[in-house]
Amino acid sequence: MKKAIIDNNRCDKSPFCPVKRVCPTGAVTQKGGMFRSETPKINEELCIGCEKCVLVCPMAAVKMK
Ligand code: SF4
C-alpha cells in the first residue's frame, strides 16, 4: 500500500494546513504554533493511503510513495 509523504521544500508550513484536517486517521501532525509552525509529519503506521491529503494540499507538497 502506498503511503503519503510531504515534500519539505514545497510545503509552505502554514498553521492552517488543510492536510491535517482532512486525514481520516489523524496520521498528520504539525509542531509549532501560529507563528512558528513546521512542515507537518505523516505517521506511516496510521496512514491508510486514501490520498485525501494529496487532493487538498494547495502547494502540491503531498505525494504517494
Ligand atoms: S493518505 Fe489518507 S490516511 Fe494517509 S496521511 Fe493522507 S489523508 Fe491521512
Describe the protein:
With 65 residues, the protein is an alpha+beta fold. It has one domain (1-65): Alpha-Beta Plaits, CATH 3.30.70.20. The chain is 15% helix and 15% strand. The protein is built from 2 helices and 4 strands; from the N terminus they run E-H-E-E-H-E. Strands 1-4 form a two-stranded antiparallel ribbon. It has a two-stranded antiparallel sheet with strand order 2-3. The longest helix has 5 residues, at 18-22. The termini are close together. The relative contact order is 0.37. It binds iron/sulfur cluster (SF4).
Helix content range: 10-25%
Q: Total number of helical segments?
A: 2
Tell me the strand order in the biggest sheet: 1-4
Question: What is the general shape?
Answer: globular
Q: Predict the CATH topology.
A: Alpha-Beta Plaits
Strand and helix order: EHEEHE
Count of structural domains:
1
**Span between N and C termini?**
9 Å
Beta strand %: 15-25%
Q: Rg, please?
A: 11 Å
Mean pLDDT across all residues, rounded?
97
Low-confidence stretches: none
